[in-house]
């Protein structure tokens, strides 16, 4: 890999190259087959991509704003829902975009996609704990990610709704057939991709967005780190919660999210198909992040309080308090006391829930997973748990993904 010949300015949020030279523990180097720290060429490549957005969608937005944004968005929605051929006199920019996303890369393996989805079903609530209490909560420690979220109000106001909308997208992507052309996962992914592009375009033009410090809003590297949270971070977290993961299951999950996030606008050059490569790349994205700050604490406290807004058919007050403490205990299990303190979370929390459930979860999961005739029931049961969890987040509101209001930077 060659270094970037003429790199763009380095945003202030980035850790200097000299501070990335942390020696990899011997056991981890043996697993990864290399040092975790980036080479100079890898460092330059990742840092430079903080200025890259989503070229295909950004180009389509140029057309959208050059014409009639409201009409163009309606045409986009019709093409997404019904197919580009149903859009009367479809503009060439719209045709080009949809021809691209409707042509899957040659590497897509439908059987692996299905296996990844079914594995996720079987994990039940364990996967939701990892994604919420490790990937999302831990992600707030990396304050470079937080700026776009904070300026959209996405996760510090109406947190339950925002988490529910992300959960809806995740459920759509992990439903059998969800990533087929007219599956819900395919369509909601394109919808979210458009929202991201609108946020990127409009925040970058605002005087209060500090490009010299943060780079481009919703950059390729920010999207890459998010995508790896749904794949590599989830797999590692599941193992720590007591769920064994086979090499084939790991491969299927990595494949699933590589395709889903290709649809989301992650460029193919950043896609990885093994956990080992994902761990290395994830670490390289971390070096582009600032230390925890006030945004980290604001976001983390809002997420910690989210269970107090959930809706349950019975014993609502009791269950809200229970889930509040339960989720905090899971975050404490994954993040440790120092990172909890950096996030402004209670420091007297013990990881009681993971401790109490680790062995029972391992035994129950393993028996259902490997005993003849039990795996299908495990997948059905796990999916029902995930559906019930999503319902508790939405309450009586419509289950959907983000619909930007008038004050949101993605509103047209």
TrEMBL record:
Residues 135-349 form the ER-bound oxygenase mpaB/mpaB'/Rubber oxygenase catalytic domain. One of its GO terms (molecular function) is oxidoreductase activity. It comes from the Bacteria. This is Uncharacterized protein DUF2236.
